[in-house]
Every structure is written in structure tokens, then in C-alpha cells.
Amino acid sequence: MPQSLTLRPALARLPLQRSGLRIEALPEGTVLHLLAPVGSGPAGLTAELGASGLSLRPVSPGQWFAVGDAVLSNTARAALAARLKPAAEVVDQSHGRVRIALSGPMATRVLAKGTAADLSLTAFPIHHATTTLIGHIAAHLTRIAEDRFELIVLRGFAESQWEDLDRMSAEFG
Amino acid sequence: MASLLPCPHCGPRPREEFTVKGAAQARPAPDASPDVWFDYVYLRDNPRGAYAEYWHHTSGCRRWLIVTRDTATHDVFDSRDAAEGREVRA
């Protein structure tokens, strides 16, 4: 008997609302890992990704995540990969990485408990992104707005990260 | 107090984000004598002072770095990408 696959979100949780902070699991849409030769810029990628509704997050030299809230169909993803092929290789990570958003004036204070990355607006401006340890978990951190961050963690670590963030933000109950 | 290591891509980061591999030294020619290869593979200086090592920014940009630091004081003199100055193959 054929069995249908059921999507079980890694973080089937309601948003955590603290005073001055909101932590929410973002939709498990699309996360693509783009890999290009070191030193190449994202110039050839942004237009294609924008057309697919994805936004670009720098990971490390020559590497980016392209993320979006909507699930990309297999054919759409293959077509996108083919169009990006001259500039970058695409590895689908939609199933492997989970996004968490932290927003509110206390977001930097909570994150600063876990990471040594400088989160001041001058050192970490809007759209800046980096990979860093938050507690014991390696996470990719992007500043979306002055008071809003996006975390990308491996799916298997998402629940632990969530529980850590829960505890780290407890003081703002 | 965390010891901070400057990553050329990410800025200062605690050493918990890194993995150290060991001395960064020039690889001998493929046809070098077995003695030279034995030294390269097994023998290390253990200086008190400046030392160049390979470090991997495991929980960050995942790039291999060559960090020159003082083994006694942990002053870091230089930190650069290990691929710098060499052709990087895609």
C-alpha cells in the first residue's frame, strides 16, 4: 500500500512572546546552499534569485544561502539550478535547515548571551550575515532589520536551539 | 574569559569556534628523501614564542587559516586564509 509522506515541521511551536522580544519559527520553505569559487561575488546570482522569490544571505567566501518562505517545486528548483550553474552550484538544504526569527528591541541582548560576534549596528549592519556558535550550536545569523534577526540552524539542532533561546530570553518574561 | 582569535573573514571569535590542526610548514617535494618526509610528518618544534599553525574556523566560515601566535602569551601576530596567495581551485 502506498504511503504518503507527511511533512512534520521541526519546530511545531507557537511563537514565544516576551516583553520586547518575539521568537518564531519561520515557514519551512526553501533554503538553497550556493557554492562558487572563492572570491566570486553574488552579482550573477541576485537577479535570478529575486525572480524566484529568494533572498541571498552570505555564508562564507564564495558561499551563500538563498532562502524563501515558499516551497520551490522540484522542477522550479532544477530550472533555477540550471540557470545559476555558470555562477554557482546549488545544494538544496530546505529539508536540512530551519529558520528562526528573533524580533524586538531585546533581540540583540538575547543573542549576545550566546555568541561572541559583535552585534552592534556598526559592526553588524542590516543584511550582514555570519556563521557563529550560539551556545554550543553552530548557527547562521542574519540581521534583517535593526531589531530583527534570522537564525538558520541544522534541522536536528532546531529544537535544542529553540529551548536555548527560550531560556536565554526568560528574563524578559 | 574566552581567548579570541581574529578570523580574516569573520572578525574576532572565541577559540571554541575553531579547531587547531598543528604547525603550518612547507610541504617537501614529492621526491624528497624519506628523512625529510619523516621530519615533515612526525617531528615538530615546540617553541616558546612565535608559532604558525593551521586553524579551521569550524563553527564559522569553515575556512582553513594560518594563524601566527605566541605560544606563551597567546598574542596573535597574523591570521590569514590558508589559500591566500595560492591558486584556489573551485
Task: List the SSEs and their pairings.
The complex is a heterodimer of chains A (about 170) and B (about 90).
Chain A: E1 16-18, E2 21-25, E3 30-35, H1 43-51, E4 55-60, E5 63-68, H2 74-84, E6 89-92, E7 97-103, H3 107-112, E8 129-134, E9 137-145, E10 148-154, H4 155-168
Antiparallel strand pairs in A: 1-2, 2-7, 3-5, 3-6, 4-5, 7-10, 8-9, 9-10
Chain B: E1 4-7, E2 11-14, E3 19-23, H1 34-42, E4 50-56, E5 64-70, E6 76-81
Antiparallel strand pairs in B: 1-2, 3-4, 4-5, 5-6
Description:
The complex is a heterodimer of chains A (173) and B (90). With 173 residues, chain A is of the alpha+beta class. Chain A has a single domain, classed as Probable tRNA modification gtpase trme, domain 1 (Gyrase A, domain 2, 2-Layer Sandwich). Chain A is built from four helices and ten strands. In chain A, the strands form two sheets. Chain A has a six-stranded antiparallel β-sheet with strand order 1-2-7-10-9-8. A four-stranded antiparallel β-sheet of chain A has the order 4-5-3-6, with helices on one face. Chain B is globular and about 40 Å long. Chain B is built from one helix and six strands. With 90 residues, chain B is mainly β. In chain B, the strands form two sheets. A four-stranded antiparallel β-sheet of chain B has the order 3-4-5-6, with no helix packed on it. A two-stranded antiparallel sheet of chain B has the order 1-2. The N and C termini of chain B lie far apart (38 Å). Chain B has a domain of 46 residues. At the A-B interface, strand 8 of A face strand 2 of B.
Helicity of chain A, as a percent range: 10-25%
Radius of gyration of chain B, in Å, reads 14 Å
Beta strands of chain A, count: 10
Any idea of the CATH topology of chain A? Gyrase A, domain 2
What structural category do the secondary elements of chain A indicate? alpha+beta
- Kindly provide the radius of gyration of chain A, computed on alpha-carbon positions and rounded to a whole number of angstroms: 17 Å
What is the percentage of strand-forming residues of chain B?
35-45%
- Biggest chain contact: A-B, 16 and 20 residues
Helix/strand-derived class of chain B? Answer: mainly beta
What is the molecular shape of chain A?
Answer: globular
Low-pLDDT regions of chain A: none
